[in-house]
Design brief:
The complex is a heterodimer. By secondary structure, chain A is an alpha+beta fold. Chain A has two domains: about 80 residues, no CATH class; about 230 residues, BirA Bifunctional Protein, domain 2, CATH 3.30.930. Chain A contains 13 helices and nine strands. In chain A, helix 1 runs parallel beside helix 4, helix 2 runs antiparallel to helix 4 and helix 8 crosses helix 10. Chain B is α+β, with helices and mostly antiparallel strands. Helix content of chain B is about 30%, strand content about 30%. In chain B, helix 7 packs antiparallel against helix 8 and helix 13 packs across helix 16. Classes of the chains: A alpha+beta, B alpha+beta.
Chain lengths: ~350, ~675
């Protein structure tokens, strides 16, 4: 389009822009000037045919014209209705990331602990905590665990160096002793917390881990109540389809004692590597509180009975989330933490 | 503990397949952890709880099988009580003397002299059974003692009689400096905690744990001394701990061996040795008491029903207990007198019997009920506050970490923290990695940051809420919040991707958000140099925040990155928390907002300036805050640009520009006059 006057095009742009009143018209206007075969493309196309000395100044003029067009279009766009705006020059692309503060994640052990406590809270239990540094009495003797008895083997314990008979609690059960001394029955309490045992660290052992302990003390609490309550709990955590079984076991602080298994949530009881081909997964220990424990805390075992239970939080978390190595909980790899 | 199906059948008729038996045993409290078919037999591996030493024998398991299947237990004739009495009356024929220094350590010791023994390989049936349960065959004499240990749960030991001084056997505590080389070839230095068997010249065994190498039965042995005894569980436990050797013998003695069967086990061993080794017997010596006390427990069957939540007739209870070997008589209709057999040292009270009844009745047959729970609604405020903080911090993009509370001394020292208390040490750590109860969360968090930077994370924002430990007069634990930031956080804004390099301001902002939500008032951050600030609430120090120095970064193996850490005591913070909000009425009249933009010399405290202006602006200045803060090409070096947003309002009327102007002018004037600010 030789001889085309840039100044007249400018005037033309101004007058045409004034008449635009819809997004459709604006798009038409844009195509006319900036489209693939638009006026600007035609102007640019003439550059090679110009004399060398003219080329650069003409190019500058074309660029200025382009800037003017973009400005006019942007200004015009502002005056049009928002709805129409989006259909033409949308800055929102649904495929692009949204804009928000990225969230952090709660640790899976906290999530499971909270979930367990919430289930019991809804049934009327209070959540209570106790210290991690405990006396030998609260950790053992008060719980009917004699100091020199093989039953203590299960509770290998870290002792403190400069404080006699002080240790890192090897289970949350000392809080039973504390709570039963401080309060009067009826008691319905759950105790989450950190515990320690000198175990060499591997995929299934840790020297520091979490437990949730619970106990119910009142007149006429029976073994059948323990079964009923723990069934409600296990179904709330693992779903209504699971089967449960209570196996006789030995814990010094309960009698009768029971270990509680659920049908394997991976193989549904058929037997797989997670459940060791047994079809059952052990999830908690429980039993009727031993009369000797009541005597230690000053509750009359003739008047009151009760049950207690305890479980490992890591174990439940590993089963629920399909985690196969306990060390992941304490490595704090963000790629792990962000999954929860 | 391993037993085999066929071995059990020696004592009880079993009509159910091995798999079904395994399930029944598991449901009765003898958890079968594996069942293996081998050489025409089945091997049951059973986890035996520490209260049931009687189950550490084929006979004991057979007794349980009889009880749960209803079959009759075939008690071998040599175990009958009458036989036992006769045995002991035949005793003490022989020249050997037995001297027990303390009857508490060793209530009963028997020694049997057997001569002209032909030591050689065991008969096949003994070897096969021992090998099935994982016991290596040694020779016929040793194998027979092992066989009876597994069959009856009675540890026995055979000495080479010709290698000991046959005048006297002494059961005593070890003397200082005394040594023994045990069968495993190790030389053990003994202490007074260890009970030993000795002759007049030397120590020949660590009682109940392991015999000595020099007196063990070997190919050349002709004559033997067979020991069957009863040792105190705690004494054996201490010996075992002192020697660091756990054996099948010590395992059983620690848990309690039935002393009423000691003599019979010895006799049975002699019979087997005669059969298998062509020997002849020449003496049996006994010292101590073999007859344990009779234990009787009154059991109220109503109590059984009350604890279990089922109604069980007295006859049913009696039937179950009788099957387990208890001798039961009626005291009244519902009260039973239960005679406890000598092998049941775990049963001493009523509730012990309740468990026995429940086990055999079957836990699975006890129904489920739902207890009426009387809720004690105590508000666990701390727990709720901790939860709230976790939610705020995750909302701000930080991830919750859990780090070990046991740490190494070196790591702690390298961090270079100044602690105003000593750390608590662990007496029996597994390794140096766990010798200190951590007095800070910063080490664990610093390591977690390092770990994640190594995983090529661009930005790490983590926090932890846990106890830290202080070695004061009493050991103390303090609930603490730790936050760690490092790297640049990138996020989208309307202007595109923005990268925000982490710094102390970011950590401060996170803690301020916590303060606001918890209703903490009167907090201050006081700089201690460029790279550290202490945190106060109402003049009480609750924590500090810092940028790790180069030495600390090096010890954490962090290169080319800055790490910012905060640690604040939640125990202290919670004392100032006022999470219960009180409503302030909304302003009735609109206010007037005015900004002041100015350039200020660096180093002047904005906090102080705001406080001063707030005072000058009364009574109409409701709020004054930093609205913008900038540096850059338009701002001269050593200065910063600031914009303060001022809000003027009144509770009585709508303010006019005219009223506000003089106050606003005063603020500007103060800035220019007192702080040499240049209003822009």
């Amino acid at each position: 389009m030789p001889g085309m006057d840039i100044n007249s095009i400018k005037t033309q742009i101004d007058s045409e822009a004034q008449g635009i009143s819809s997004a459709g018209e604006l798009e038409e206007f844009r195509t006319k000037y900036l489209g693939r075969k638009g006026i600007l493309a035609q102007l640019t196309g003439t550059i090679p045919s110009l004399a060398l000395e003219q080329r650069s100044s003409f190019g500058r003029e074309v660029n200025a014209l382009k800037d003017k067009l973009l400005f006019v279009i942007a200004e015009k766009q502002k005056t049009l209705l928002p709805g129409q705006k989006e259909t033409t020059f949308s800055s929102f692309d649904a495929g692009m990331p949204g804009i928000a503060q990225e969230l952090g994640h709660i640790h899976p052990l906290t999530r499971i602990t909270d979930e367990i406590c919430a289930i019991f809270s809804r049934m009327g239990f209070s959540v209570v905590s106790g210290p991690e540094i405990e006396t030998e009495y609260n950790n053992f003797t008060g719980l009917n665990i004699p100091l020199e008895h093989p039953s203590r083997e299960a509770f290998d314990t870290f002792y403190l160096k400069d404080y006699a008979q002080m240790l890192l609690r090897s289970h949350t059960s000392p809080v039973q002793v504390r709570a039963m001394k401080e309060r009067k029955p009826p008691l319905a309490i759950v105790v989450p917390g950190r515990v320690y045992r000198p175990d060499a660290v591997d995929a299934s052992h840790s020297f520091m881990f979490y437990q949730v302990e619970g106990f119910l003390v009142d007149k006429d609490i029976k073994f059948s109540d323990l079964k009923g309550l723990l069934e409600i709990f296990a179904k709330a955590v693992f779903g209504n389809d699971i089967k449960m079984r209570f196996r006789p076991h030995f814990f010094p602080f309960t009698e009768p004692s029971a270990e509680v298994d659920i049908s394997c949530i991976i193989c549904k009881g058929k037997g797989c590597s997670v459940c060791g081909r047994k079809g059952w997964l052990e999830i908690l220990g429980s039993g009727m509180i031993h009369p000797n424990v009541f005597k230690h805390v000053g509750i009359d075992p003739k008047k009151y009975t009760g049950f207690a239970f305890g479980m490992g939080v890591e174990r439940i978390a590993m089963l629920k989330y399909g985690i196969n190595d306990i060390r992941l909980f304490f490595e704090n790899d963000l790629r792990f933490l962000r999954q929860f | 503990m391993r037993v085999t199906y066929n071995w059990l059948k020696d004592f009880v008729e079993i009509k159910i397949p091995a798999k079904e038996l395994a399930d029944k045993l598991t449901m009765a409290g003898l958890e079968v952890v594996s069942l293996e078919e081998k050489a025409g037999d089945f091997i049951f591996e059973i986890e035996i709880t520490s209260n049931r030493p009687d189950w550490l024998s084929v006979l004991g398991v057979a007794r349980e099988v009889a009880a749960i299947t209803g079959a009759k237990l075939r008690v071998p004739s040599f175990l009958s009580a009458r036989r036992s009495g006769r045995l002991n009356s035949q005793a003490n024929k022989g020249s050997l003397k037995i001297k027990i220094e303390n009857k508490k350590d060793c209530p009963l010791y028997t020694a049997r002299i057997i001569k002209n023994v032909k030591v050689g390989p065991s008969p096949d049936w003994i070897r096969r059974r021992l090998e099935l349960i994982g016991c290596r065959s040694v020779n016929n004499v040793v194998d027979i003692t092992n066989y009876l240990l597994y069959e009856l749960g009675e540890p026995l030991h055979a000495f080479d009689l010709d290698k000991i001084n046959p005048e006297e056997i002494i059961v005593r505590r070890a003397k200082p400096q005394e040594k023994i080389i045990t069968i495993d070839g190790e030389e053990n230095r003994l202490s007074g905690e260890v009970l030993v068997i000795a002759d007049k010249d030397k120590t020949i065994a660590a009682a109940g744990v392991m015999g000595g190498r020099d007196t063990e039965v070997s190919q050349g042995t002709r004559n033997i001394l067979l020991e069957a005894a009863s040792f105190d569980p705690i004494v054996v436990r201490r010996s075992r701990q002192a020697l660091g050797k756990s054996t099948e013998s010590s395992y059983r003695f620690e848990r309690g061996v039935d002393s009423s069967m000691v003599s019979q086990a010895s006799l049975k061993a002699a019979e087997l040795i005669r059969e298998c080794c062509d020997s002849e017997e020449s003496g049996f010596m006994v010292s101590g008491v073999s007859k344990p006390k009779d234990i009787k427990v009154d059991l109220d069957t109503a109590y059984v029903s009350k604890i279990l939540g089922i109604n069980l007739a007295a006859a049913k209870v009696k039937h179950i207990l009788t099957r387990l070997g208890f001798k039961v008589k009626h005291k009244s209709k519902n009260i039973l007198i239960v005679g406890v057999p000598s092998f049941r040292q775990d049963v001493r009270t009523q509730v012990d019997l309740v468990e026995e009844v429940a086990r055999i009745f079957g836990y699975e047959l006890i129904p489920s009920s739902v207890p009426a729970i009387k809720p004690c609604v105590t508000i666990s405020e701390r727990r709720d506050l901790v939860s709230a903080i976790k939610n705020i911090l995750t909302g701000l993009g930080a991830n919750e970490a859990i780090t070990y509370s046991l740490v190494d001394r070196a790591g702690l020292n390298n961090l270079g923290l100044k602690l105003d208390f000593g750390p608590i040490e662990i007496m029996n750590p597994l390794s140096q990695e766990q010798e200190i109860l951590s007095p800070t969360l910063m080490l664990g968090l610093g390591r977690a940051v390092s770990f994640n930077l190594n995983q090529r994370q661009e930005h790490v924002a983590i926090f932890e809420i846990a106890n830290i430990f202080k070695g004061a007069k009493e050991p103390e634990e303090e609930l603490t919040l730790g936050i760690a930031l490092s790297g640049a956080k990138s996020f989208f804004t309307g202007q595109g991707l923005v990268k925000d390099e982490a710094g102390l301001s970011n950590i401060k902002g996170m803690l301020e958000a916590v303060f606001v939500l918890l209703g903490v008032a009167g907090y201050e951050f006081i700089s201690q140099g460029e790279e550290r600030a202490d945190i106060y609430i109402q003049k009480k120090k609750i924590g500090s925040m810092l940028k790790l120095n180069r030495q600390a970064l090096r010890s954490l193996e962090i290169k080319n990155r800055d790490v910012f850490l905060l640690e604040a005591s939640l125990d202290k913070l919670f004392a100032f928390a006022r999470p219960n909000k009180i409503f302030t009425p909304l302003p009735k009249y609109p206010g007037i907002a005015r900004d002041i933009s100015f350039i200020l010399k660096e180093g002047l405290s904005v906090k102080d300036i705001l406080a001063l202006l707030k005072g000058k602006g009364q009574p109409l200045l409701r709020e004054i805050r930093v609205a913008d803060y900038y540096k850059g090409s338009q701002i001269p070096l050593g200065y910063r640009g600031l914009t303060l947003a001022c809000l003027y309002s009144s509770n009585e009327r709508t303010l006019t520009e005219k009223e506000v102007q003089p106050i606003h002018d005063l603020l500007c004037e103060t800035l220019t006059r007192d702080f040499a600010a240049k209003i822009r």
